[in-house]
Amino acid sequence: MNKEQQSGQTDKSKALRNVLRSYRWTPHASTGSSPAEMMLKHSIRTELHRLKPHESTVPQQTTKFKNGQLVWTSTRQTNKRSQWQPGIIITILGSMNYEIQLNDGQRCKRHQNQLRLRYSSTDQSSDVDSLPDDLLDNMLQSKSTQSSISTQPSKSTSPRYPRRIRRPPERFSPS
Fold this sequence. Notes:
alpha+beta; Retrovirus_Pol_polyprotein; DUF5641 domain-containing protein; 5-stranded antiparallel beta sheet; SH3 type barrels
């Protein structure tokens, strides 16, 4: 407080706030952490923290695809499932958006999450148009058939629980 008064600070409440703030921020010699850290369970931010660059900044995401790259493009149709059509990236419109030319010559704009990398330029059959969805369906069907086979109980001779003895209800009869 004396240092605050000597530095020309006339307001005692402001001087007291500055002293308490520096006390609460300063790490203790024996514990190695400040009183504020011990109470709040995390370090508090000071003016120095604002000057230092933040270490956990998320790096800028780079574009996934390049010009001329072969991709599968998701085309959504009303009241139908989305189909995947082969195409080529023509231009990069932004960090996440691309212009694609489909194999039928049509151009469309798609977001990065509507594109998948295509490894071959040849189309094997017309079934390839919906390849990712069909693969998922086949996997789900095979898992469901396996689980239905395994969930069928084997025939056992004795019931698992004892049978309940059922009696007719006792009716009230005034006598």
